Amino acid sequence: MRPMIRLRTAIAISLAAGLLIIAIPARATAPTSRATTAVTPAWTRQTDGTFPPPCTTGSTACTDDVVATMRNRLRLLEDHCDPRASFALVYLRTTETFRDAAATPGYFADPAWARAEAALFAEYYFRAFDGWSDGRLADVPPAWRTAFAAASTPTVSPAGDLVLGMHTHITRDLPFVLAAMGLTGPDGSSHKGDHDRVNEVLAKVAVSLLTQPGTPLGSLPDEAANRLGTNREALVPTLVAARENAWRDAERLVAARDSRERAVIAWTIETRAEAGAQGLRSLFSDAPVPASAAAASCPPRSPAGG
Fold first, then answer.
1. What is the Cα–Cα distance from 178 to 253, expressed in whole angstroms?
2. Signal sequence span per UniProt (predicted)?
3. Which residue, 130, 125, 132, is CA-closest to 146?
């Protein structure tokens, strides 16, 4: 297959997997009464003792704990020049910016829900990462297996590791997190507005990490944009579109009439995320990266952050 055809095919696969909504019956586009009549928000019941207690209440301490955990994990990745450090840095800066936004009165309609959702979202990533690191591959979703495997091979560029992390976390993890959290409050009001406010957080982070010269990520944003056939400025709208589709997928999960229908929807999410990850891995794969280039691509150590 000629390089240009391979490039276009990979882009089509990844965009279809991450940015398009597959045809699932329209009746599944809104939460059912089960989600609107709960006495307490659904996320208060999603605890299994694997994360600090403040995250079950959505307190400010919850986000502080998540940020501290991310910083510690990033430091270890940087110490070993791990290619996954770039995604970890972007994720940390996003969470720090989210923390500041959540502390601003009125920014989120339900800041406790937003904080708890962010904590559960991070936990999905931590679990996948730890499962891969510990060799518990059965506990790692297929799309994450593809992303982590790509990070361990010299044929995938560092920009590919960054894009694979963002794609997998949003396309695969976010629908399940939102469904577990509950899409509406006890009074039936939708959390969609707060979900969308996070897009403003992403835009703010992009200014410092993706779009401005001198970013700690170096040339990675440019390489990522070039491989995707776009430019730096289009990266955030692409993520916003993926987050919108994640919300729609969560609506389908919540609206499922029974466990069988939910399993089909879950399978669809997993399959689409995996197809996108495979497409992106192909798109960002070239000849083996020389050892000297791999060493040079090691991202500089990040500042402590706020």
1. 9
2. 1-28
3. 132
List the alpha helices (DSSP H) in the chain.
3-19, 33-36, 60-79, 85-102, 111-133, 142-151, 158-168, 174-181, 192-206, 220-227, 235-255, 259-283, 291-296
Q: Which of 289, 303, 299, 305 is nearest to 80 (CA)?
A: 299
Q: How many CB atoms lie within 10 A of CB 203?
A: 16
Tell me if 306 is assigned to some domain.
no
Q: Give the number of residues written for the chain.
A: 306
CA distances in angstroms from 36 to 31, 85, 105, 240, 255, listed in the order given: 7, 39, 25, 26, 11
pTM (2 d.p.): 0.80
Per-residue pLDDT band at 57 (split at 50, 70, 90): confident
Which tokens sit at 41?
């928000």
The mean pLDDT of the chain is: 80
Spatial neighbors of 134 by CB under 8 A, at least 6 apart, are none
From residue 144, alpha-carbon distances to 3, 40, 166, 260 in Å are 26, 32, 11, 24
302 located within any domain: no
Helices 158-168 and 220-227: angle between axes, nearest 10 degrees = 70
Residue 217 domain boundaries: 3-296
Residue 304 forms part of a structural domain: no
Please determine, for residue 256, whether its predicted confidence score (pLDDT) is greater than 80: yes
| 119 within domain boundaries | yes
Residue 263: CB partners within 8 Å, gap ≥ 6? Answer: none
Tell me the two tokens of residue 241: 């579109």
Q: Is the dihedral of CA 236, 223, 122, 208 positive or negative?
A: negative
Q: What is 177-246 written as a DSSP string? A: HHHHH-SB-TTS-BSHHHHHHHHHHHHHHHIIIIISTT-TTTTHHHHHHHHTTS-GGGHHHHHHHHHHHH
Torsion of CA 62, 67, 70, 71, to 10 degrees: -140
Residue 63: name the closest of 129, 106, 121, 124 by CA: 121
Please give the backbone phi and psi of residue 133, each rounded to the nearest 5 degrees, phi first. Answer: -65, -35
